[in-house]
Write a structure and sequence with these properties.
The chain is of the alpha+beta class. The protein has three helices and four strands. It has a four-stranded mixed sheet.
């Protein structure tokens, strides 16, 4: 599980990240990057799957768990490219990502982070 210090929780933080409009899309996952950091703080990360993607909460939560776990592994491996320069990151899952397995989700997240950095 992703430690609490890395989680993006507040609605205002999510909205601020979307407003910057610095994004990348790959493999059914969109990555929004927030404002660049000025001081040394942890980069906060949020994971979103809309109810419009699938009506079943089980399917939406599975996709969020896969995205969260792949980001956690990349954090553990210290393989986050240059995305740590942002205050916040939001990963948004779409219908294309629903049927994918863990390896495909992880590769989509890596591609998105490469594009952003």
């Amino acid at each position: 599980m992703l430690p609490k210090q890395y989680r993006l929780k507040k609605r205002t933080a999510f909205k601020a990240t979307y407003r910057v409009k610095h994004s990348s899309h790959s493999g059914g996952i969109t990555l929004f990057a927030g404002i660049e950091k000025k001081e040394e703080t942890e980069t906060k990360v949020g994971f979103v799957v809309s109810k419009k993607v699938h009506k079943r909460a089980v399917k939406r939560n599975r996709l969020k768990r896969l995205m969260r776990e792949s980001y956690r592994q990349l954090l553990k491996e210290n393989n986050l490219f240059d995305t740590q320069k942002y205050l916040s990151l939001v990963f948004v899952g779409s219908e294309k990502a629903l049927g994918k397995n863990f390896a495909e989700i992880k590769s989509a997240i890596i591609k998105n982070m490469e594009k952003i950095s």
